[in-house]
Amino acid sequence: MKVHHLNCGSMRPAGGKLLDGEPGRLRRAELVAHCLLIETGDSLVLVDTGFGSQAVARPGEWLGKPFMAMVGARVEAAETAVAQIEALKLDPNDVRHIVATHLDVDHAGGLADFPNAVVHVRTEEHRAATSPSNAAEKNRYRTVQFAHRPLWSTYDELGEPWFGFEAIRSLKGLPEEILLVPLTGHTRGHTGVAVDTGDGWLLHAGDAYFFHGQLDPVAPHCPPGMTAFQNLVQTDRKARLANLERLHELAREHQDEVKVFSAHSPVELAALRR
């Protein structure tokens, strides 16, 4: 399998160093929406979809004005998954499967660009997004992004162990080299996605963490603004911190076997593209 690392949504929130750790507090920080495009041989698979093309046409309605203001969303047609697939001389119609780490607006915005793709998601995440049980869930997800009636394929909590994680499972209709790795906390159905490339594993950890320094093997660290943001948007703090610790252990003890990365770090995206 061939894996492409895409940025499907740039964000420039105010806060500078307080969010991304780079010098300067008066500038805007830099964040990405790191998605994967996987060539399996007979089809294409996306892991997350970013903002999507509808965000270009109607950004306020599609992403929500509060979200856009909070993260400083920079919506560009060239960054949509569709445009990047075409730039690779591939056919967007060959995207037959989408694996969602979760269904927040910056991860599910491109689902409607691939209406015939099967969308693989944990049952709890699907339930939270489509039948919210409280005001927080109702305000979190954008129902307009699911109005095309995605072809959902949902997964319960049963599975096998993998590098110390539990309930890992393969996906219907997809190669055994692509696995769900439940990472509850950011949302109640949040998951990581592991991909065996043949040269080792990739683990897309979604929003289980946001800053590359959080997995530093010697001195894990995170800028205060980003720490505050993660606390603000978490659903289950205890589960999130427990999974973050497990990810740190995985990155430290199995760095030669598994490359762990998050959805929003430009540092990790640049390293993997190299």
Which key terms come to mind for this protein?
single chain; 274 residues; alpha/beta; six-stranded mixed β-sheet; 11 helices; 14 strands; 23% strand
Short account of what is shown:
29% of the residues lie in helices and 23% in strands. It is an alpha/beta fold and 274 residues long. β3 (34-39) and β4 form a beta hairpin.
Set out the fold topology.
Elements: E1 2-7, E2 10-11, H1 17-20, E3 34-39, E4 44-47, H2 54-57, H3 59-63, H4 65-71, E5 73-74, H5 81-87, E6 95-99, H6 105-108, E7 118-122, H7 123-130, H8 135-140, E8 151-155, E9 160-162, E10 165-170, E11 178-182, E12 191-196, E13 201-204, H9 224-233, H10 237-253, E14 258-261, H11 266-273
Parallel strand pairs: 4-6, 6-7, 7-8, 13-14
Antiparallel strand pairs: 1-3, 2-5, 3-4, 9-10, 10-11, 11-12, 12-13
Summarize the structure in words:
The protein is 29% helix and 23% strand. It is α/β, with parallel strands linked by helices and 274 residues long. Strands 1-3-4-6-7-8 form a 6-stranded mixed beta sheet.
Helical fraction:
25-40%
Radius of gyration: 17 Å
Distance between the termini: 17 Å
Extended strand count = 14
> How many strands, which pairing sense, and closed or not: the largest β-sheet?
6 strands, mixed
Major sheet strand order? 1-3-4-6-7-8
Quaternary = single chain
**How much of the polypeptide forms β-strand, as a percent range?**
15-25%
Low-pLDDT residue intervals, each spanning 5 or more residues: none
Task: Using the alpha-carbon principal axes, give the shape.
Answer: globular
Q: Mean of residue pLDDT?
A: 96
SSE sequence, one letter per element: EEHEEHHHEHEHEHHEEEEEEHHEH
Q: Structural class of the helices, strands and pairings?
A: alpha/beta
Helix tally equals: 11
